[in-house]
């Protein structure tokens, strides 16, 4: 797994710039030999990249470390999914009762940590969710969502300007993870500050920033 090949680069506008079509560059020997497969990759606006291996380990790199050998984060359970916001990451453990970990910037309380934690260096357990059976995590720009598919309850925290949490009555930056919506089957978000969710009735719902009709 050490011969990861790059197919392109990112230009100043955040767009992928291919060299020649499907032409690979020199091998980037980044991962230790024990890594057999990378199953997911996410990145944020600071050019930080998190890789999830088939063994459930997390590796993080950035623009200055692309050619350095990576080391997995230590003292973590195996992970099964990852997600990224503008400047932070979430990971969901692959355990009988999954747990949620978060790290990165917490200035809008998007990680659910208290007011004194504006930056979290390493994946850290989000204690307020450890009793919930969270099956799905979802990051938007500065807010986060956590779905319990057993109860179909969607939890969330972080920035709530422009209705990003779908609950206008919640204050703009809310670090306390709250129950937001019931009867939710799936939730989908991205870096465009709007969110789509499906409910158990089969209907599709959207909320958040609607500039240029992104939602509707």
UniProtKB/TrEMBL annotation:
One of its GO terms (molecular function) is guanyl-nucleotide exchange factor activity. Signal peptide: none annotated. Transmembrane segments: none annotated. GO terms for cellular component: cytoplasm. InterPro entries: Ran_GTPase-activating, RCC1/BLIP-II, Reg_chr_condens. RCC repeats lie at residues 98-150. This is Regulator of chromosome condensation.
């Amino acid at each position: 797994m050490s011969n990861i090949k790059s197919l392109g680069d990112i230009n100043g506008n955040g767009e992928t710039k291919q060299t020649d079509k499907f032409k690979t560059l020199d091998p980037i020997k980044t991962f230790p030999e024990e890594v057999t497969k990378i199953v997911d990759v996410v990145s944020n606006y600071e050019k930080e990249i998190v890789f999830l291996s088939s063994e459930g380990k997390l590796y993080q790199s950035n623009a200055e470390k692309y050619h350095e050998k990576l080391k997995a984060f230590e003292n973590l359970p195996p992970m099964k999914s990852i997600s990224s916001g503008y400047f932070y990451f979430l990971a969901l453990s692959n355990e009988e009762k999954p747990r949620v970990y978060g790290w990165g910037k917490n200035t809008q309380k998007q990680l659910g940590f208290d007011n004194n934690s504006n930056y979290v260096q390493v994946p850290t357990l989000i204690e307020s969710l450890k009793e919930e059976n969270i099956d799905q995590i979802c990051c938007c720009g500065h807010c986060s969502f956590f779905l319990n598919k057993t109860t179909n309850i969607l939890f969330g925290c972080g920035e709530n300007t422009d209705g990003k949490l779908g609950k206008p009555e919640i204050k703009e930056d809310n670090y306390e993870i709250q129950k937001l919506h019931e009867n939710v089957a799936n939730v989908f978000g991205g870096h465009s500050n709007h969110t789509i969710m499906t409910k158990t009735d089969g209907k599709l719902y959207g909320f958040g920033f609607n500039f240029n009709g992104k939602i509707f």
